[in-house]
From TrEMBL:
Annotated protein name in UniProt: DUF4160 domain-containing protein
Pfam families: DUF4160
Database matches in InterPro entries: DUF4160
UniProt source species: Desulforhabdus amnigena
Domain of life: Bacteria
């Protein structure tokens, strides 16, 4: 599970290698909370425990660092 570098904060952003056949996305974790966001366009795919406020904060981080996430996806998944 490669972690996306260069995005600081409370959350861990990562990919699963077996997900490369899906549309571009990123998984997000904080403690036992997990969610998944599509990157094109930025949209929530799945949520396991984050509050709406937390999801909005994550969406903002992803939107602000979208190029970083897309570069990391392309580097990992080709």
């Amino acid at each position: 599970m490669p972690t996306v570098k260069g995005v600081s904060g409370l959350y861990r952003f990562y990919f699963y290698s077996f997900d490369c056949n899906e549309p571009k996305h990123v998984h997000v974790q904080r403690e036992k909370l997990v969610c998944k966001f599509w990157l094109e366009p930025v949209a929530l795919s799945k949520n396991y425990g984050f509050s709406p406020k937390g999801l909005n904060a994550i969406r903002q981080i992803i939107s602000s660092n979208r190029n970083t996430f897309l570069e990391a996806w392309n580097e990992h998944c080709g």
